[in-house]
Specification:
Radius of gyration: 21 Å
Strand content: 15-25%
Largest sheet: 7 strands, mixed
Number of helices: 15
Structural class: alpha/beta
Mean pLDDT: 96
Helix content: 40-55%
Distance between the termini: 52 Å
Order of helices and strands: HEEHHHEHEHEHEHEHEEHHHHEHEEEH
Shape: globular
Strand order of the largest sheet: 3-9-8-7-6-4-5
């Protein structure tokens, strides 16, 4: 038998030995605050379903109606024959929501980041990236021939030093997460945009975890800081707070036009199913009706305070992403297992997603968790934390 892949069994054994092997949970229920995972009824703190839209009947009904009108699939990439009028309606709705001139939708957030960075930047340019940026940004940077410079997390003084050293490059792109997905802290966008203006640089913000969470009606990090017109490229997703699927780039109309011609991850992927487009449009209507974001933040404040009062290390979280940092990967895995045995579903986060000494379980509450749900989870954390010597 061909032996070229024999190394895989050795690598898998190594991952398990180093407590870096994480199993994939299987849901046999709708995504909600309470789910069935691996056959067990549990309260979920492990999804990005911030507003509880993933199984909302209004989205389901919009999707069903779209299937009846447009069918299920588009059958082609959008630049050939895969663009339907509902795609344009979806993009116009997103642009209005984000207070942007236009929006281009990609199959996923990772595709939006990779495709946009690769299309915008090339030889003779420099990309300046926060050290804790999402992996899809890192992938996009690696796909270019640009110089790469990293500044320490949220350290704008060091960012300015890098900008001063980078004035000879053709283009300078500063790229940052809006909300950092592992720690739940927020980028210092006001100072970043000020520096970008002073040093003639482009600003790109990955707002995957800001959409539906920050700003008026969940318009995101840019709206949170009232920086409309100061950020050149906004990336967002419909896969998290909006309960659907896909990523998008918001900005000037010329940006959309340029990316439709050059972004490979757009050019070579089939258009969204019409049912998904219709659900996204409905989700945007719902989030602007009010109540959903407010409930999310009410639950967030309650749960975060509860964890902190118990003595857990929640890092620098400023958003519904609240890590419980334990340090050791093995301890994080044990904490996840013990919580699951009590009916609370969280996922351990270990290297390489975080530094080897920063292992944690990451919790995300949603707008549809009840106080009883949250109290049950806090009681479980207290029991597990004491049992494992964390608190």
């Amino acid at each position: 038998m061909k032996s070229g892949l024999n190394f895989l069994s050795e690598e898998l054994a190594r991952l398990k030995k180093e407590n870096l092997y994480v199993t994939m949970p299987v849901l046999s229920s709708q995504q909600s605050s309470r789910v069935i995972v691996n056959g067990k009824n549990v309260i979920s703190l492990a999804s990005n379903n911030y507003l509880g839209f993933a199984n909302n009947p209004r989205l389901s009904n919009a999707a069903k109606q779209a299937i009846d009108k447009w069918g299920f699939g588009t059958g082609a990439v959008r630049m050939i024959s895969g663009t339907m009028d509902i795609h344009l309606e979806m993009e116009q709705a997103l642009a209005k929501f984000k207070h942007a001139e236009d929006v281009l939708v990609f199959v996923a957030g990772i595709a939006a980041n990779r495709g946009t960075i690769q299309a915008m930047m090339g030889e003779g340019d420099v990309i300046i990236s926060d050290e804790l940026n999402h992996g899809s940004i890192i992938d996009g940077v690696r796909l270019t021939k640009s110089e790469r410079k990293i500044f320490p997390h949220k350290n704008t003084a060091e960012l300015e030093k890098v900008l001063k050293e980078s004035q000879s490059f053709r283009r300078r792109l500063i790229v940052t997460d809006g909300v950092f997905s592992m720690d739940g802290d927020i980028a210092p966008l006001p100072e970043i945009t000020r520096l970008a203006e002073e040093y003639d640089s482009i600003v790109m913000v990955d707002d995957a975890h800001g959409d539906g969470v920050l700003g008026k009606h969940g318009r995101g990090t840019v709206d949170h800081f009232n920086l409309h017109g100061k950020v050149d490229i906004e990336m967002g997703t419909m896969s998290k707070a909006f309960g659907c699927l896909g990523g998008y780039i918001a900005g000037r109309k010329e940006l959309k036009d340029y990316l439709t011609q050059t972004a490979r991850t757009f050019l070579f992927t089939t258009g969204h199913p019409p049912a998904v487009c219709a659900a996204i449009i409905e989700a945007l209507k719902m989030v602007q009706e009010g109540g959903h974001v407010e409930n999310l933040w009410k639950n967030t404040r309650y749960f975060k305070k509860g964890l902190q009062n118990l003595g857990f290390n929640t890092g620098n979280s400023e958003t519904p992403i609240t890590p419980v940092i334990v340090g050791d990967s093995g301890l994080a895995l044990k904490l996840g297992d013990d919580l699951f045995s009590q009916g609370v579903f969280v996922k351990p986060i270990v290297y390489p997603l975080v530094a080897k000494d920063k292992a944690r379980v990451r919790t995300i509450v949603t707008a549809i968790h009840t106080q009883d749900d949250l109290d049950t989870c806090l009681n479980a954390f207290e029991k597990s934390g004491k049992k494992l010597g964390i608190i």
